[in-house]
Amino acid sequence: MNHSHHPGEHDHPETFDAVITQGFPHDKLKLLAKLNKERVREKPAPRAARIARLAAPVATAVRQDQAKLSRAKRTAFRNAIVRLAEEGKYLELIRDHMDMSHTMHGSMGEVGLYRFLAWHRRYLLEMERELQRVDAILRPRATSKLGIPYWRWQDRFPGWLSGFLPATDPNTGLAPPPRKNASPPPKAKAADIAIIVNQFSIQNTGLTDENDYTKFTYGIEGWGVRPNGTSLPAHNHGHSWIGGIMNNTRTSPTDPMFWLHHAEIDRLWQIWRQDNSAAAPRLEGSDRIMDPWEESYDDLLDITALGYAYDSTSL
Ligand SMILES: [Cu+2]
To answer: Which domains does the chain have, with CATH numbers?
Structure first.
């Protein structure tokens, strides 16, 4: 897929370091909204595929804290990723994220800001289904479904994934560069996560018609501040802190840590929704559809119906 014809593609930040330095693109919102209207979107999957993939009755997959994962499940997760990389399926999944016409980050403007959480939820489901498919081949006797583990940002980098980078960089065909796993920028501490989830209302997004959803997603994506005015580390900062290919805004899913990092975002969103279920993003028309998939924002709120659960829904 070559999307270099997509207008504005060239001024999308290449790295999360640049995303953090530039901050939320308040000065370009009109241009970005215009580009979003003009974008050519990939066709969604046919409806039959949607039903087979999402609505089919499946046993619930439990997404567990990576620090508490059994040795057997760590091995199963790694082996499933290796298998997907060998099949070429992993590269296909990375390409979904390299296609910026999906408008799924705040660096692409307001629509990207509002699509960030639901788009990545749908993206993780696609990965989780693929992991489960190959896991059933690799562990035919397993009694539970594989779920994507989550990484609590206040914890150290998962030692069981050290040096584990089985997929090649789609841009070079070579092994990705090693991770950095160090500041700058700092990654979020427990106190920062409490600000993101419980003190989201302090965020001043500067957007017209901001609501609670706007403030929450602004903070968790990594545009927010702490009560003392310093930058609030969140999603963007985790990408930069891990570094290597995780720092690349397009190809970051090449690093398996991408899935654990985004599972934590998804879990924090779920926790926040327990007390803020009425808050909703300002998305209209086709902006509500999480292309290249067919599901809308509204289809992606009930995680039980989507076939997964978290082992913990507390901070
Ligand atoms: Cu991300």
So the answer is: 50-310 (1.10.1280.10)
